Amino acid sequence: MAAFNSSQEKKLEFAQKSRYTFRLGYRKLNEDVVFIGDLNTGNDNERPWLTADEFKQKYRRSREALLVIAERIKDDDVFKNKRGPKQMNPTHQLMVLLDYLGTAGSGANNPKQRAYFHVGNGSVNNSRKRARDAVIHSLGKDFYHWPDENERKNISNCYKMEFNLPNCVGVMDGTLFPLAFQPETEDAADYHGRKFQWSLTCLVVSDQKRRIRWYITGYPGSAHDNRMLRRSPLKVRKEEYFTVYQYIIGDTAFDPSENMVPAYKANPNKAEPDDPDERLLNKVISKPRVSSEHVNGMWKGRFPWLRLIPNRVRDKKSLTEVMKYIHCTVILHNFLIEFGDQHIKSWESEEDRLSDIAEPANDPTDDMPGEEHMLYRGVPAGAPKDWRRATVREYLREHHATFELERNARQDDSSDDEGEDLSAVATEFENYFSRLNNN
């Protein structure tokens, strides 16, 4: 066989180092057409491709809210390539993410998103991850955090005014995230829960404004809510989350403790406890507990991805990826509440409605009668674990009838708070929209 000359040897060396010996150019369409068409609001002579309602149904938020989010995340480092081809517009990458999170199961998998948005399968997947990470980096600190001492005081004032629950700073509830595929892990059987074939368990603490203030997830579907709470920072490092007299409320799944006031369990074969004071406490905390269940419905309604997670759980890394998407939805849920972007009721799977809690004009602890002082003390040394719940129960027995009379009188002359002033956010959107038009 004849020897290769130097030119042929170089070509052979290049071929051996190359993935392809021959490759056509990339298939390309004008990707901006779909994104710009969806964002277009139309004008006097042209109707938009998507009406405001159609846009909200697809992306699970208004155009205004989407563009404000895009403005907040556009300068994140994940959108800055050190090498390689130029990335898509950050706004367009965010739209890919929101379309993905707005669809349950495999309804927004790579091939379907590629066909709709006219981008490659790899670009679709990378866009979702970049936009997700940018939301976490750029919005996380502002829209997901445990309330500080002053905010907890305001929250407890709201629960006192509306429900007669002194020192309550939130409501805890558990929920499940179904998985579309059986986990490919050694403990796969643990993901088999009582409600779904395969799922993740999540504990959520929400406040009176429907915001998610704390959550923990990643446990398999068979994990009990109370077990998760016992191992959580809320229990292990409770001093970082509560003063000595503050607590959250929950259902009968939780054990009573100094910072947890759960409902009383009914006696066997009965719908309610026998003790009238226990029935009263259950009745009082049932209303804010319903609101917590409603928060979960809003959350999953805004992000149907949570109703059937299509990602495969194979190992710790893949589970972490799923948890990042969940965290992203928490941040966006809270942001949209602050922004005032209304959810659509038909998105929810149940018809439960939240009670809007008005901000009290004055601190309800002012001129507090002496018999209430024990509510503002820490649990005495050696007290039973049910001490906090028993204290709230006794308070309700003495004061709840009077509270209901006063609340009914207040409702005749007051109206619900309309929410926080969002003029700064609206101005931010207007400035961003002006720059888009100028460009």
List descriptors.
alpha/beta, 14 helices
Q: What fraction of the residues are assigned to beta strands by DSSP?
A: 5-15%
Q: Helix- and strand-based class?
A: alpha/beta
Largest sheet: 5 strands, mixed
Low-confidence stretches: 350-371, 415-437
User: Strands of the largest sheet, in order across it?
Assistant: 3-2-1-4-5
Encode the helix/strand succession as letters. Answer: HHHHHHHHEEEHHEEHHHH
Arithmetic mean pLDDT:
82
Please bin the fraction of helical residues.
40-55%
- Separation of the first and last Cα atoms: 63 Å
Number-wise, the strands total: 5
Round the Cα radius of gyration to an integer and report it: 27 Å
Query: What is the approximate shape?
Result: elongated
Tally of helical segments: 14
Written description of the protein model:
This protein is 46% helix and 8% strand. The chain has helices at 6-17, 32-39, 52-59, 63-73, 90-101, 110-117, 121-143, 149-163, 225-231, 233-236, 276-302, 316-339, 387-413, 423-438, and strands at residues 168-178, 199-206, 212-220, 247-250, 260-262. The chain has a five-stranded mixed beta sheet with strand order 3-2-1-4-5, sandwiched between helices. The longest helix is centred in the middle third of the chain and has 27 residues, at 276-302. Residues 350-371 and 415-437 have low confidence and may be disordered.
SSE blueprint:
Elements: H1 6-17, H2 32-39, H3 52-59, H4 63-73, H5 90-101, H6 110-117, H7 121-143, H8 149-163, E1 168-178, E2 199-206, E3 212-220, H9 225-231, H10 233-236, E4 247-250, E5 260-262, H11 276-302, H12 316-339, H13 387-413, H14 423-438
Parallel strand pairs: 1-4, 4-5
Antiparallel strand pairs: 1-2, 2-3
